[in-house]
């Protein structure tokens, strides 16, 4: 299993990776000019906002899925009866009696 990179670990400047949070972009840029830092900060804010929205939507989907499961009717399974334990009903007794008379 490969070790996970911590936030304290410096990534090489030429390594390409998908940023998961806004701070990842700023850390990857290193020493750049003011305009690039402003642009990176704005891009990071958008990434953070979209990540929060994504987490919120995932939570609402999970809640709706549990609500849907709660609304479904619970079907009871029929218990299989042992044929040796079944008692004869009146209809069955009448049929057997008719067969014996014939």
TrEMBL record:
Organism: Rhypophila decipiens
Name of the molecule in the record: Uncharacterized protein
Domain of life: Eukaryota
Chain intervals for the UniProt region annotation (Disordered): 80-102
Composition bias, Polar residues: 84-93
